[in-house]
Design a protein that fits this description.
single chain, about 220 residues, alpha/beta, Rossmann fold, 10 helices, about 10% strand, globular
């Protein structure tokens, strides 16, 4: 009888704990699972999942920061068809307080250099790689080549490869990226901010890493 009374009076988990548990489970599913469980297009797996601790611009931009070990903060991989949207993204990132250094192929590639050389150099000399996955991206062999180069450069580096999905059905989403969280572009304002926050988080972790100078 004693154990039965204790069972009846066992306290229930607080609403705060319940909401935290549900929030964690909702934001921790990988892009592959989210894409398979959605309708005709991938869901916003990264939406609301970026949690940034306070960071000062000076922490990332300090002269001795590991940020300066590479020429660019972000390399944008995209189809020429999507150039206008990418130019808006680059303008947004470069206008942030962190003054992100972006590699935009048509603007920053060296005239006369081989395309393959420029693409490989851009990947190797950038901290993060934004992949704008659109129908045009999927049809562009150079986009796929650069995507594979980025994955080969740092296959296990969290936050370096940032897939951004726009107007792509889940059946067409690159299998190579299905183990990564992605951003599904709904509005430019929201998606651009998510990209910015992801890059900041990676640079923050890079600068705080005890082995950052060895990269």
């Amino acid at each position: 009888a004693g154990w039965f009374r204790r069972l009846l009076h066992k306290p229930k988990p607080s609403s705060v704990e319940s909401s935290l548990n549900s929030g964690c489970s909702a934001s921790s599913s990988p892009s592959s699972s989210s894409a398979e469980s959605s309708g005709s297009s991938p869901s916003t797996s990264l939406a609301g999942s970026v949690r940034l601790s306070p960071v000062l611009v000076s922490d990332i931009s300090a002269s001795g920061s590991a940020r300066w070990t590479k020429s660019y903060d972000v390399c944008i991989c995209h189809s020429e068809v999507d150039l206008k949207l990418v130019e808006e993204l680059v303008s947004y990132l470069e206008g942030q307080p962190e003054s992100f250094r972006c590699f935009l192929q048509l603007r920053d590639a060296t005239p006369g250099s081989a395309v393959v050389t420029e693409l490989c150099d851009a990947v190797q000399n950038s901290h993060c790689w934004v992949m704008l996955i659109t129908p045009s991206f999927l049809q562009d062999p150079w986009c796929k080549y650069q995507m594979h180069q980025a994955l080969a450069e740092a296959p296990m580096a969290n936050g370096r490869t940032i897939p951004v999905v726009k107007d792509v059905d889940r059946k067409d989403y690159p299998r190579e990226l299905r183990s990564l969280y992605y951003i599904y572009m709904t509005t430019k304002e929201k998606s651009f901010k998510q990209i910015r926050d992801t890059v900041v988080r990676y640079l923050q972790e890079l600068c705080q890493s005890p082995t950052s100078g060895m990269e």
